[in-house]
Amino acid sequence: MSSAVKPAVVLLSGGLDSATVLAMARSQGYRCHALSVDYGQRSQAELQAARRVAAALGAAEHRVVRIDLGGFGGSALTDAAIDVPTAGVQAGVIPVTYVPARNTVLLSLALGWAEVLEAQHIFFGANAVDYSGYPDCRPAFIRAFESLANVATKMSIEGRRISVLAPLIDLSKADIIRAGAALGVDYALTVTCYQADDEGLACGVCDACRLRKAGFSAAGMADVTRYR
Amino acid sequence: MSSAVKPAVVLLSGGLDSATVLAMARSQGYRCHALSVDYGQRSQAELQAARRVAAALGAAEHRVVRIDLGGFGGSALTDAAIDVPTAGVQAGVIPVTYVPARNTVLLSLALGWAEVLEAQHIFFGANAVDYSGYPDCRPAFIRAFESLANVATKMSIEGRRISVLAPLIDLSKADIIRAGAALGVDYALTVTCYQADDEGLACGVCDACRLRKAGFSAAGMADVTRYR
């Protein structure tokens, strides 16, 4: 099989990071199967953004899996009773926007689809900025999931190794934006805000908006985000 | 906190194995939060059985999370286009009833709920008989998931260790049935068949029915399964 047709599953949230990862995977010649997960997050505009991004960046297909993590509660992103914070991130504190075991669930679903597709590569947009607060954005987490994937699956028993690639893990938000822009990502299509409205317009004050805004500024680029 | 009120998440399919695990966890004094996952499996009767078993065995609560693994295909249990085999298991061959990454997804969901509940124990009914064919029923898989859980979560960062307990892992089906019967499990409430009908009546010929039937026989007990 030539590298030009290697299949990969790419987790695609509709945000800035995963759009960049999809562009990177495409530029490396992967046939990209984009996967979005509707886990009851506050912002449905994110999933619509994911559809636009998948089409714009040439994903071979795009699927949305629905799952009701909101039933467990415990996060401002899935529980309407918890407010999204707007006062900025604090060092050493895990924000209430953390969704319990979210990235473990997302990668598990990606692994299931990878098995069906016989894809040995899973791309995931975890990065160093998120890592400041969320346990499941750390390099140690990515390595542990990769170890799991390599005992959990039929492919691994058959000797085909599965790789979990997190190309943004050590990049700053500015580096990510520069890399994506160089690959032609139109960030106006993406939605990062934790509480975007139905049209995908951003609040400008939640942690996700703050990190994104600072990223454009540090990259010396115009912020193309559509604010309300 | 006394051991009598320690919370645990117990994965409950409605089958014989997980019913036994719930009885074991209860007998050890855990407050049991039973979790069933509707992953598009052929047999909806299994989920109804899970509800009956959770009530009969004193679970503190029972939740069903819906997720559409059927959208990925690749298994006789989620894809109506693939027949459930009835000719018996073959050594060294992974059956088409294997659902890609299923147990990884189930444990990920259990982990998410455990975080919300601050439960440090997850009970899971993987066992040695299933292990003959499925990669994600092996002891190495359980250990790898436990390692992942202990880097993936807010609890683990805070120094509270998470244990994934698979008390059936080394037991034969006959041992499981004997242990459950001694704890008062009414196996007539459980549904094991891969293609049970809407009333939960079993086919008697699929691999799951064969293993269950042989288990009652080897335990020297009457088979209480309701066949059609």
Structure description:
Two copies of one chain form a homodimer. Chain A is an alpha/beta fold. Chain A has one domain: Rossmann fold. The first copy, chain A, has eight helices and five strands; from the N terminus they run βαβαβαβαααβαα. Chain A has a five-stranded parallel β-sheet with strand order 3-2-1-4-5, sandwiched between helices. In chain A, β2 (31-38), α2 (45-56) and β3 form a beta-alpha-beta unit. In chain A, α7 packs across α8 (207-218). The model of chain A has no long low-confidence stretch (mean pLDDT 87). At the A-B interface, β3, α3, α5 and α6 of A face β3, α3, α5 and α6 of B.
Q: Total strand count of chain A, please?
A: 5
Shape, per Cα inertia axes of chain A: globular
Q: Mean of the pLDDT scores of chain A? A: 87
How many strands, what sense, and barrel or not for the largest sheet of chain A?
Answer: 5 strands, parallel
Strand order of the largest sheet of chain A: 3-2-1-4-5
CATH architectural arrangement of chain A: 3-Layer(aba) Sandwich
Mind telling me the C-alpha Rg of chain A? 17 Å
CATH topology (fold) name of chain A: Rossmann fold
- The name of the CATH superfamily of chain A reads HUPs
Order of helices and strands of chain A: EHEHEHEHHHEHH
Largest inter-chain interface? A-B, 44 and 44 residues
Flag low-confidence runs of chain A. none
Q: What is the CATH class name of chain A? A: Alpha Beta
Oligomer: homodimer
Percent in strands of chain A: 5-15%
Number of domains of chain A: 1
Structural class per helix/strand content of chain A? Answer: alpha/beta
User: Roughly what percent helix of chain A?
Assistant: 25-40%
- The CA-CA distance between the termini of chain A, in Å, is 48 Å
Number of helices of chain A: 8
